[in-house]
Amino acid sequence: MTGQALPRMRTVAQIKAMFAAEGETGISERELRRLAKSGAVPSLMAGRKLLINLDALIAYLNNACISSEQPYADGIRRID
Questions:
Q1: What are the contacts of 61-65 at 24+ separation with CB within 8 A?
Q2: Which residues touch 33 (CB under 8 Å, ≥6 apart)?
Q3: Residue spans per domain, the chain
Q4: Is the separation of the CB atoms in 41 and 35 below 8 Å?
């Protein structure tokens, strides 16, 4: 080995069950899949299973911020 630690990859169901058991967050399977598809969290397909990097997901959730501002409250937002 090169000395690098292997990433902890988990399925969507495993992550959801782990968070639910710890009472940490109410993140849905759909949101986990959206984060993976958008590239916000590193992931890969292993056959038919979506594997998500657990450490990157936890870092993303720790750094995510919610803005109280509504950016397009004064008009209609453009849809591209």
A1: 61/25, 61/27
A2: 12, 50
A3: 9-61
A4: yes
Please give the average per-residue pLDDT across 43-64, as a whole number. 92
Q: What is the 3-state secondary structure (H, E, C) of 6-31?
A: CCCEEEHHHHHHHHHHHCCCCCCHHH
In the block, residue with structure tokens 């759909």: 30
Q: What is the pTM of this model?
A: 0.70
The closest of 47, 42, 39, 31 to 9, measured between CA atoms, is 42
Q: Is 49 helix (H, G, I), strand (E, B) or coil?
A: strand
- C-alpha to C-alpha distance for 55 and 61, rounded to whole angstroms: 10
pLDDT at 4: 84
Please give the share of the chain, as a percent, with pLDDT higher than 90.
48
